[in-house]
Amino acid sequence: MTAALLLALGASLAWGVADFVGPLWGRAFGALRIMLWAQAAGVAALVLVLAVRAEPPRSAETLLAIPAALAGTLGLYAYYRGMAVGAMTVIAPIAGVSAIVPVAFGIATGDRPSVPQFAGMACAIVGVGTASLERSTGSRRIAAGAGLALLAALGFGFYFPAMHAAANSDFLWASLIFRTTALGVVAVAAGVRRPELRLPRRHLAIAAAVGLGDTLGNVLYAASSAERGLVSLTSVLASLYPVVTVLLAARILREHVAPAQRAGIVLTLAGVLLIAV
Predict the structure, then answer these.
(1) What SS3 state is found at 1?
(2) Residues 240 and 12: beta-carbon distance below 8 Å
(3) Burial of 144 (0-12, 13-18, 19+ CB in 10 A)
């Protein structure tokens, strides 16, 4: 169990960095353009790893990575779009409440959360409501991008149980199936929207690095599932990535948020931490 929890924490670190750099460049070049090259880099890396391993999938259960990819890719696109119109220090914590979905799934399938975990869910829900409000000419209104952040939370939330089940069979093949499906979804979306896809070499390398970081997070989370970690624990620990994203945004971008929003962010992150107890 200890190994599973450490792997899940590693996933949160990898996702936290990727989810800061990716949306930051997505603001300049567009979400679909960055996502497409990022997904392609992830697929290439996993194909190389599995070619070296030279073993076929062990079970059809790995195909559960397909619905995980559909949910996760929807969540990631909403996350990028939310980051494009809103503050990272608001969007990331709201998206992090995705932890509630796998906790509910775990309860339904036999997990028994502790009292602190139930308290964490309450904190997270209240924190989302507070963090998503901002002051405007003496009144409060929904923060820019809050709705997209909630959609991201929903997509990420449904990713966790499906990917957890897929990884129990073979976490590397599950990761490749996930990443290939995600690449297909983004490619179809790009074909419909027809955005500019070319990137200068330097920015292409950054997009590829984002994809490798995101893929590393997927692999580490899948590996934590393969270690038989409980979905209600590994998924919420992996959901700590907003802590990393918020710290980077505050430090590098110097993003400012209202005091009430700051309290909501802290409450949301505290809720995620309590869920992981």
Answers:
(1) coil
(2) yes
(3) middle
Query: What per-residue confidence (pLDDT) applies to 18?
Result: 94
pLDDT of 51 reads: 94
Q: What is the pTM assigned to this prediction? A: 0.86
Do residues 19 and 77 touch, judged by C-beta distance below 8 A?
A: no
Instruction: Identify the CA nearest to 101 among candidates 232, 240, 238.
Output: 232
Do 233 and 9 touch, CB atoms closer than 8 A? no
**CA atoms of 110 and 121, how far apart (whole Å):** 18
Q: Which amino acid type is present at position 210?
A: V
The CA distance from 249 to 66, in Å, is 32
Exposure string over 183-203, b if 16+ CB within 10 A, otherwise e: bbbbbebbeeeeeeeebeeeb
Q: Hey, how many other C-beta atoms are within 10 angstroms of the C-beta on 2? A: 8
